[in-house]
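ASSEMBLY PREDICTION REQUEST
Request ID: AP-0331
Submitted by: J.K., bench scientist
Number of chains: two
Total residues: 1464
Priority: normal
Notes: Please return the full assembly, not individual chains.
Input sequences:
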Amino acid sequence: MGSSVQLDRRAVLKGLAGVTLSLPLLEAMGKEVAETPPRRFCAMYTANGMSLPKPTNGIDEWSWFPKTDGRGFEFGKSTEPLSPFREKLSFIGGLYHPNGTKADPHLCSDMWLTGAPLHNPKPGTFNSVALDQVVATHTKQYCRQPSLVLSIDAGVGFLSRTGTISYNQEGKPIPAENNPRRVFDRLFRGDRASLATQREQLQRRIKLVDAVLDNAKSLNKQLGQSDREKMDQYMTSLDEIETRLTASEKWIDIPIKTQDYSHLNLDANSEGEPHEYYRNMFDLIALAFDADITRSVAFMLNREDGMGVSDTFPVKLGLNRTHHSLSHAEDKEGQLAFAKYDLFLSEQIAYFLGRLQQFQDINGSVLDNSIVLYGSGASTTHNPTNLPTLIAGGANMGLKHGTHWRKPNTPMSNLYLSILRSMKIEEPSFSDSTGVLNDSVFTQV
Amino acid sequence: MTDKPRSFDQRQILKRTAIGIAFLIGSVVATAEDAPAKPASAISTDAIAFNEQIQPFFQKFCVRCHNPDNMKSGVRVDQLTATPDDRQLFLLQAIQKQVDDGAMPPAEELQFTPEQRQTLNDWILSTITAARVRDTKKNGSVRRLTVSQYRNTLKSLLGLQEDLTESLPPDGISKEGFTNQSHTMILSPLQVESYFNIAEKALDLCIVDENKKPVIQNFRMDLGTAINPEPCPDNLVLGANNFLLNNPDVLVTELTPNKPFAYEPFFMRKEYDFIEGYVGNDTIRAWKKFNSIYHSVFACMRGSPGYPKGQSFQVVPEGLLLRPAIPSPEIFGQSDTYGPMANFKISLRELPEDGNFRITVRAARYDDALLLDDDAPAQTNVDTVSVPVTELTSSPDAKVLIKEAGIYQLDIVSGPEPVKDLFSITLGDRQVAGQLRKLTAYPNRPNDEEKSKEQASAFLLVRLPAGELKISARLGDNSKLRRLVFNRLDNSHELAQRFSVFERRVPSLSVYLGLRRDCGSTLTQVGQPRRVASGELEEYVFEGAINDFPNPDVEKDNVNYLAGIREIGVRSEYTDGREMPRLRIRSVEFEGPFYESWPPETHRNIFNASVTNADPAIEAREILRSFATRAFRRPVTDAELEAIFSVWQKSFVSSGNHRQSIKDALLVILNAPQFLFLIENSQTPEPEDLHPNELASKLSYFLWNTAPDQRLLELASKNELRSSLDSETERLICDPRFEQFIDEFAAQWLSLDKIDIVSVDSKRFPRLTRDTKTQLRQEPVQFLRYLIEKNLPLRNLVQSDFIIANEVVANYYNLGSQTENGFLFVPIKHGQEYLGGVLTNAGILAGLSDGRESNPIKRGAWVARKIIAEPPDDPPPNVPRIKEDDGTQLTFRQKLEQHRNQQGCAKCHGGIDPWGFPFESFDAGGLLKTGANIDPRSTLPDGAEVKDLNGLKTYLANDRIDQVAFSFMKHLASYAIGRSLTYNEFMFLKEQGKNLRSNDYRMHDMIKFVIKSDLFIKK
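STATUS: Completed
Returned structure:
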């Protein structure tokens, strides 16, 4: 990948920031760019923190964070399933949201991807933009759908107990999908009726833009000696909108990559077997990445404060207590059961990383072209410091893995800015970031 | 989007460099009138002189640093010619100043000889003089509306209340702080796309299907002890810190309002199945069915316990009594985000999705008693009426005879046991309760041995009529209470006077809309607080557009009991903690969407009855003509109308839907440059008079920040506007829309956004809370408004014997006792040497700090830029910050002086810091500092010495008033025309503006001066 290509690409990204319609720039920009491998992002959230047992309980080996830092770290018992991916992932310790320590601890999932000051929201706002949506703003030009927002429970939950981790540019929660069949239909089976509506809306808008352009052109002719700079900007904008609308209309007709869907069980649902459900959701994400349908995914695996169906999963798995209740456990038995739920989640994440590893882009695996973030908004329940965080994939974006990196009191937003920079998204900052993570797994920030 | 043409940046830089310097040598420049006009042939002579003498100077002495690649200090001299254009005149003056001062060329470089210096000087003078008599070319202007102008214009054009402009990117801010300057106004595809979306949404809201009946939700909640004969039997729960009123005290009634049109009443859903519910603050999971309106609509108090004095709320038979809702500190964990529990709210599951709403509160000022402090001593008075406890408790309606009407103090007398109970009392129809923490000893101990052990405390003051008074009281289990004693107070008694002030005070009622949330309030105020002065119930109406308030964003089938609950908040508003009668709320009624008529006015504004015609084409043409004329702020031309009409035609041919086709055509109008832009169309390069229609728009967007009204357009069409500029200016200033100018201009000119941004150290400045900051930000705006409204001399801007304050602001200056006007800003004679004028507005001073320490640089730069228009240069890159805490004992001022003495820093700081030092007496909270080590003396850049800020104010108001007036007019003019001033315009204001001094630079004079000058009325 030559540096000149990168520059062109960046210029385009910059020029189109904030575009609300996706369009197939790939062809428009020619072969070189079409052959640039995608850069993707996937965030996965687990609520209530991880098990970090008290030393007096004598089960240190069940601590989620590895006992030692650096490259020589050993996986604990609850993260053992991830060990085959040792060179594809890193543990990150010491992160926190400075605003997290000020807010009601139940809000930690609301701010996990945003870092917003929820204890003192600006009047009229509730949150700020989430990382996955910043990514989407910069990647949606290259794919069919800006982002995919998933959660164990559909919708958004409700204020201060949201069921989604994704927030739009205005800080409003984005409703999540939780049903594999609906996700599948949305991603791969754009249904005829909605496509027709979409086409109709696009055509209507194109007609409007044409009429506005006609009017503006005739006005422009009458402007005599007047300063035309603003008119020029206006006409250019209209032209650009029209080009984009036309392009969006074309997307509708471009066929989706042929893939094997036979392993999917679209009847799996959140009320059934937890692992069956998670694996199907992860399969769908992997397929969506492989077909380049979207490049930004946020998935809330379970919810804070005993909300939603996921609270009962540990019970279904024979761990006797609900997720929220386990997270409050102080006793050895409870903390062990909590760690065993972490183990279950590690198995699911390992399955997902494996799927991403199997799919191939032109320059390596899909995993190497995707940054996967997995973590929680609390280290153990209601403690918003030292957030458990795992970063995987992204080798082709400069991520050097196989370590347990730790630096106390590092703003989470610095990690997020590092992710953006690695994806070549040249944002000056993210939320309350104070910089990037230097000397870490990120080598291209 | 950031790639604006380089020339703009450059011009800005040049100007910044030059403007400040221009004034220091202003007198050197000959005025246009004095300058002899040069014959045309002289130009060629100038050209030769330039090529032979001047250009070589620049080449030899300057170009090495000031070339296109290097541009040191943003300056390049290689483009200078014998006939410099306007922006280069600023540069020439800067060069002259630098060379005169010996600052350039720098000491280590090759130097001019005195003769060379003289030659250059002469050339610059003659060149500027020549340039000033040349006609400046003008080529009209095309500006887009700012976001706020677009918002105001759309609202007035459509009659739509809802604000749809959230999605527009914010306007860029110019160096001078303005958002309406053409060079910072960028138009991007994102912006244009937002215009499309907004227009579509707006028309969807305005235009209805008139044959479809609207659905209207209307209900009322009545409050009062046992008002509900059939209360909900369930124990209701609404999460932590939500205290629900007792079920029998709340009555919810769904209503069908009387409307002059047919509609469908909306009845709220009462049957719900939830799987997630609550027991206390714990979540439980189990499906449960609910069926009662009281699981859909709740009456709730929100906040933490512990009101400083008395109970925060009390339900009485006549309604709900509220004390002022004290705002909380902002940090979670220290206290709940609502403050003590005086926030009443109706929590409910359903409100309309669109449209306007109306909330009607029936409220009164309660005929209240004044609670005294815990340790207030009991009285001994000849008029004593004693009520023994036997009478109080023996019958439900005990009576006591009050012989004489007046103000009474009520004392509570108990036995010797310690008392720590809630005391509640009913006097006539009046109820009061308060926590007794202790009683003190009786002041004059009676001889009686039993009585000598008694304890007594004063509890309250109350005004009682003569005659029999019904009375009942309760203190814990009443076993400790011995008797109550009424003591009439003489009217001259200190406490009686305190009561007379108290009983005249007026609570402020405000209404909020928001969402239930565990942490952080989302309640957003509906309109302004209303003063409730009457003791009788009156209706107070609050209106808004529902979507201007927080929306729940919750899916309809959410299975959590607390999901998506909305709130209608009602409060007695807190100003500064002064004691005042409680607010009595009898009922709260909601109606929405609220329509006066059907189809609504927004619809009839477009489908005007006067254009109704059986032939849809004829009707369409008239609708579009009328709408486009209003939207374009001038008569639509035939060609424009034809183009718009053809959109209707095409749409109508393909769909046959008249209403939809009108919508399509209106969309084109709402996205047309004629609507979105302010166009001053110029036909020649010569300055031309504005077209009367252009003048009408320019005037109204200047003084109203919105489109011209009918009268302005009529005057324009009769070509009478230009001759009535004086009277029209007066009229516009008196109009309520003038507030839209004041809000924008004051905030942008005086950089009031800094108050919003500064993060205050709440430990050092606990009084500077979020709410206080909001009010302090208003102070300079209201002050400027008052100066203009009263047409006062400008000197008040820097020095005045009054401040404009409401109770919150006055209290911040410890002048709270000077006003009883609630949130209304009124003039107050401050009687303080340090107050008056905007320079000592606490909000401004706090904004010009880092929230911890005062900062003479920020304050000095602000004075230089805003008040005297001698802006400093931008700081060079990579200047290290001055550390406040570097281990030395030096004050910030001393460190700054060290910094200034470094080479390279002195030049700029010499023009900044001296203006900032006089502010050193004021802390980062904007109030006078206490303690030693305060040094507000300063030697100003022009050599004048002032001993403190008051000295500076006096100096500005007397010796430098011309400069202050120039600064005001310069900012005003730049805002009025939406661009920076040219050199000629700049000099014109500077020189001709002085003529207004003879009438003390009155505010209207200066506004009219700008409006009637060529810079405004020519294009």
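REVIEWER COMMENTS: Residues 190-260 of chain A form one domain.
SIGN-OFF: pending second reviewer
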